[in-house]
Amino acid sequence: MAKATVAARKAAAAKVLSILSEDEATDVTKLNLDDVMRRFSNLQGRSYSPGSLSTYLSRLKSAVDDFGSYLENPLGFKPSVQSRERRKNDQKKETSTPIILEEPSTERQPKGPLFSSILPIPIRPNITVFVQGLPYDLTESEATKIANVVRAMAMPT
Asked: What percent of the chain shows pLDDT beyond 90?
């Protein structure tokens, strides 16, 4: 399974399952994931678009289904992922989009497993910064580079 797929499933599971009590989280294979997602949406849905919530549910279901399959037969386990054809070296690779410092536009943005959804970051009352185009496998050095660009824009205090 691709690292980006694993990271995406892990992030979705961590965020959605964070709303559960310890007792509820003891056996995720017995959860009604639609109900859990409904609760997550009610509690934290304002921070996510309907499309993001749907994607989180899909990733969570895939992760829990794979976990259940693994528990049933660890030696014969194969993750349920769809394989894709590899691109030829001469085809252009996808690149990320810049940080957006205002409401996200409706312009066409890159899609696919390497890109996350729009990340809202509330910085003050009534001011939220939206970051888009971060890859799921963002490294610490890449995050530092982005943070340094943002720091350079700050007004001295």
From this structure: 6
